[in-house]
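Figure 2 data, in text form.
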Amino acid sequence: MKNELTLSFLAIEENEALARMAMTCFITPLDPTLEEISEFKTIVSEAVTNAIIHGYECDGKSLVTIHATIEDRLIKMTVKDEGMGIFDVEQAMEPMFTTKPQMERSGMGFTIMESFADCIRVDSTLGAGTIVTFEKNFSPVTEVSRMR
């Protein structure tokens, strides 16, 4: 099976839930386990939240764009913003690093994404935005996985 989706939405916090639900519906034909759904939703949520809060500072005018493809049991997805960009990607990916401590941000977004994705890449340019790309393989459907 091969499928493709592009979704763009305003950079407002309410749209994080929209992105999470739309992407969950997109992977439904893979018949993922509950654990896979939970992990995938978390990755989407973290990537989109970073774009809204850190890329655009919740400006409510700019767009976040998700592009995803499914081929066989592999999903490849990018979350793109054209916002502020990340000064130091390596530092931003360190556990507990945050540029928004006043917002009670934990600094664990990239760490969480890395733990649930099979592969993650972050490309960022100051003043031009950030693209988070990840891949996740979904397990083959079996009778045992259907019961989870």
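Caption note: The helical segments are 15-27, 34-55, 89-92, 109-116, 143-147.
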